[in-house]
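Please check this one:

***
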Amino acid sequence: MRALILAERPDGCAARLRAAGFISDVAEEIAFYLDQANDLAAEAPAILDALSAAGIEARIADPTVPEAWLDWLRERPADTIVWAVTDGVRYYRGSGAVGMARLLGARVFGSGVQAYALAQDKAKTGAVARSLGMSVPAFGLMRDGRWLTPPPAGEGPWFVKPNTLGAKLGIWDDSRAASLDAASELSRRIFSRYRDDAIVQPFIPGADVRVSYMAVAEDPALERIGAYRLATATARDFVTLDDSYALVGLPGADGRPADGGADLIDLAGHDPAARTRISESARVLAEAVGLRDLFSLDIRLGADGTPWLLEFEVSPAVTIFDVKRYLRDYWSLDLPQAVAGALTRRLGASPEP
């Protein structure tokens, strides 16, 4: 059996965005989402060794360089599983590789193709999750200061963020807006900088929770879902792009050392009731939209214990500290061992139609 691991590199993404008219700073900022591909390079030898020991021939490539992998995949698609480590359908290209893999008859590690498309759009994700009975903040959608939906009811404050960008891109210190007029100004900034729509939703006092999952072995009931509260080093009560920069040791967007960062607190030991509620919500979403093998959820845990879904990811970065912590806590494995186990399990499952 064979495994093809596809990870889009940030340099190529930034060059493509510059060619599309984005200024260099913004192109590099958007491409920061793909930095996991650079991190993966350091893990690649150990991952390939672990897969080889499991009897899996593997290759790691960039999905935007098809000459490095497409012919190899076409040789034996029925014997090959494809894992798109990086996803995306607009700024990024990983989800396109998933569609190509299914077109050729290969298996896919991770969620179904339809989940890849849904995960890119926070507004559509929220609408689907709400229809499933999950707690989702009421929201409105704006484009360059103009409402695409009716504005959300209430008096605020409001939280404003890009609709299709992840990795805290477009979340700044002032992303909490006191009024809809202020939210409109943030929408204009988001559109000007990223050409993206803006989600406007009530700001929910509470804590950010990261839900992580990898099916290293058979776990049909999704019992090994991990939920970690992010304890930020700032008083603003939400995580920004600068916090993400700080986690990887990069300067902030203005070139100065980034403040913040976050520590992980496992809810299983500190708030088991909240962890149970969050896990139940994650199972509902996973079953309905086809999440499997590997996924993550961003939850806002309200002061009253309500888990509010913000978004989910079908290709969370596995090289960063939260997933590695989850693998240690819930599977007692390092990343290469976990990847080998998870891919072996999926290759042993029934093929997709």
In short: The radius of gyration is 20 Å.
